[in-house]
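Records of this kind hold a single protein each, on a pair of labelled lines. With that in mind, the following record should read easily:
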Amino acid sequence: MVALQGSGSADAPFVKIYLNSLTCGNINVAYKVRDIDGTTDNAIQPVALHYRAGGIGDYTNVPAAFIADATTGPSLATLETNVNVTLPAEANNQAVLELRIMTTNAVGSDEWVGIDDINISATCGDFVTDPKINEFSASTIGTDYEYVEIYGDPGTDYSAYKILEIEGDHTQSPGTIKEVISVGTTDSSGFWFMNLSTGSLDNNSLTLLLVKDFSGAYGDDLDTDDDGTLDSTPWASIADSVAVDDGDAGDLFYGGPILGPNYDGISTLAPGGASRIPDGADSESTSDWVRNDFDLAGIAGYTGTAVFGEAYNTPGASNEVYQEVCGDPYTPIYTIQGSGLASAFDGDEVATEGIVVADLQTGLRGINIQDMTGDGNPATSDGIFVYLPTPDVNVGDHVRVRGTVAEFNSLTEITSVSQVLVCNTGLSVAATGLSLPVTAVDDFEKYEGMLVTFPQDLVISEYFNFDQFGEIVLTSTRHMTPTALYDPGSSEQQQAAQDYLLDKIILDDGRSASNPDLAIHPNGSTFDMTNLFRGGDLVTNVTGVIDYSFGSYRIQPTQGADYTSANPRETLPPMLGGQIEVASFNVLNYFTTIDNSGSICGPLANQGCRGADTAEEFTRQRNKIIAAISTMDAEVIGLMEIENNATDNAVIDLVAGLNAFNGAGTYDYINTGVIGTDAIKVAMIYKPAAVNLVGSHAILDTSVDPRFLDNFNRPALAQSFQDPRSGNIFTVAVNHLKSKGSACTDDPDLGDGAGNCNLTRTDAAKALVDWLADDPTGAGSENNLIIGDLNSYDKEDPIDAILAGPDDTAATDDDYTDLIFKYQGDFAYSYVFDGQMGYLDHALGNTGMQAFVTGVDIWHINADEPDLIDYDMTYKKDAQDLLYAPDPFRSSDHDPVIVALVFPYFYYFPIISK
C-alpha cells in the first residue's frame, strides 16, 4: 500500500505507474482506496486516475475512476472504495503509457489515503483496436450522396465489425435495423469507407452503431416495446456509436453522442453528415463532431458552399475543417457597428476584415481594425475593437477575424475570436479629423473604434485619474465650474454644465492596469520630473482610436501629441506689496498620527485617522507643506484639514518644522486645543515679530449659534491682530464649511450645481457674519477678514449670505466684498474638480477691512498639478514614488489664497526752536 497526503509543498501527491501496452488493449485498472487516517482531521479528500500516452503532454482524466471524497472522519479510518475501470482506446498499443493516481491538498486538514491492491490487466497478442465511425453522410443537396467511413489501425482487417443503422423516428418502428454495412480492411492511413446507394441512410432521426460479431439481421426490431432501450443485442460488443436527431419530439436514440439541430451553433437543422475532428477523436461528446457541408464541398464534381465551422466531405481521407481565407465573404465593420449606440449583431458570430490601426495587445489585450474604404455613411463607424491578446499582429496588417460581437460595457467589440488571418502587411488608413466641442455627447459613437486625430489645440483640463489610470481630460478651452459664474439652477448655469459635457474627451494611455508604471506624458514620452505637464497646458494633433469605457468616450493614443507648456509654474507667490499678508491654505489632512493605527484619532481618539499612512509619507508631506508656507512668507496663515486632538501635535509639529527651516521663533500658533468633534479642524499660525495678538481667540460652533451645525461644518476660529506700526487692529476668521460630496439631513443635492448641504453652508455663513459683527475676540476691531475653504463657489448662496452682511441685505454698509473677485475677476480659481475650475477658498472683507487691502491673488501650486507627484505612496509603483520633490508643488489639492494689507502710519517729528 502507498500512503498519500496533500499538504505543504506536497500539493498534489500521486502514485505514478509506467506501462508498455504495445499489442495490448482493453486495459483494465483496478485498485482499492483506503481511508487510513484515524486522527481528528476531516478533509474532503478527492482521488483521481489520469493517463497519458507517449510520456509527454497533458494527462487525461478517467471520470469513472474519480472519488469525490475517499475519507471519513474525524477519528474514523474505515472507508474503502474500489476502483475498476477500462481505459479508453487511446491507451491501447502504446510503447509508453503512464498512469497517475492522485489526491490533492484538500479543503481543511488533509487526511492520509492509501492506494492498495493495484491490479492492471489487458488483452494482448493479436489485439485489434476497436475502430471508430469517423465520418458519415446521410442527407445532402439534391439526390443524397451517402457514405460511411471508419478509422482504425492501418492495414487492419475489420471484417468482424458491422455498421448498423437503427431507426429513430418514433412513427417508423424505432429500434428496427434499417441497414447493415460490412466493414473491410483499412488502408495504410487507417481509413475504410463505403459509398452507399441513395436512400440507404434515413434523412430523419437515426443511430449508427459499430458492433463486433453481429449475429442479427436486417429488419430485426431490437426495441420491441419502443421505450428507447434495446431489448436484444445481437453482438459481442459495441465499438462506437453516433446519432442524428432531426428535432421531432418523441424520437428515440440507441447510442451517442446525439447530433441535433444547432448542436454546433451553425444551423437550426440537424446535420446531414459529420466528421470527427481530428480523425478518431473520441471524448464521447458532440464536440468530437463537425457537421459536413450540405452542398458536398470536397466531393469531386461538386462546388460546395462550406462555411466556417463546417467540414469538407472527405470519404477515405483525413477529415478537414473548412478554413476561411482572406477575401471570403464577410460582414463589413460598418455593418456590424450600425448607426445606433449598440450593434444589431450583439451576440452573433461574424467574420470581418480591416486594417490594424492600433496595436493595444500589451495594454488592453486587443487591437483596433478599420475598414480600408468605409461606407461613406457619417452615421456608422468604420472601426472596431477586437479583443485579441494573441496572436501578435502589427499596425498596418490587413487582418481577417472571426469572433462574436459583444457590447462590453457599451463598447461594440469582437470577442471570443476563433480565427485570425493576416492577409497583407504595411498598409495604412488615414486618421479622421475631429474637433471639440461636439454637438451631442454621443457624437463620438459614430467614430467608435476608428483612428482619429484632433488637429486643434486642446487644453489639459483634468488629471485626477492620471496617477491611477493614466487618464487626462482634454477640452477646447478651460471651463469654469458653472456656479463660479452663474446662479445655481439658472439657465446659464445649466447651459454651462452642458457646454462642458460637449467639450471634453479623455486622453487615455492604452493600458488597463492600475497605477501603470511608467506613467506616460501626453507627448508620448515617460512622465517624470523633467517631463511634466500642468493644467492649462496645450496638446495638438492628439491621435488615436476612439474607445468607450467607464461611461466616457476616450482616445487610446497611437502616437504622442505635440505638447506646449502654456501655464508654467509660478516658483514664487505673486508680489502683492503688502506690509502684512494673510493666507488661507488647506493642508490636505496634515496628521502627525500615522493613518495605519485604527480608530485612534479625533478629540475622543475614536475616529479613523487621515493623511500619511507611513512615517516616510508623513516626511514627504511635511516637507512639501513647509516649503509652501515658507515660500509664501505670509504673516498670518489660516489652515484647514489639520489634525484635531487634545495635544495639538499637528499644529505644534508644523510650527516646529517652519521654525527649523526659517529660524527659531519665526512662527507661533493660536493655542486652541480641540475644536469641535471632527477628526480635522481649522487652525491659525502667525509671525509674532510682525503682528501682535489682541484679545482672545474665539470659536463659532452650535453652542454659540444653533444655525451653525458643527456636526457638519468645522467650527470657525477667529483671532484679532494688531499692526505694530500703525496700531490698526483686524480680525481674521478661518473656516471650513461642510463639503458638497455627502448628504446632510433634509439638505440634499437639488441638481442645481450647488451640491449637497447648500442650506447647511448658507445657515453657517449667516451665523458667521452675525458672530463677527459682535466682536467675538473682544478686540474692538471693525475690520473683519473671512478666509478658508467654504466649499462654495462664488455665485452660490453661502457666499451671497456673507456678502449681504449681518443685516442680510445687499448694498448696505455692513456688506462684505468678495476680494478674489474684486482683484482677480470671474475666472479666478483655487481648485479643479471634474475638469472645471473655481474657487472654494475665499477671502471676504467687510467695509472696514477693504480700506487696507491692496491686492489678492491665488498661488497656483496645487490645482494645476497632477497628484502623481504628491507625497502619497499608497498605490504607486517604485518608479512613481520617485516622482517627488520637497517643494511646494502639489503639497495639497487646493491653492493658497494670499491677501495683502497695508496700514497707513505716520512718524511725528518734534519741532525744535531756539
Observations:
- Residues 132-291 form one domain.
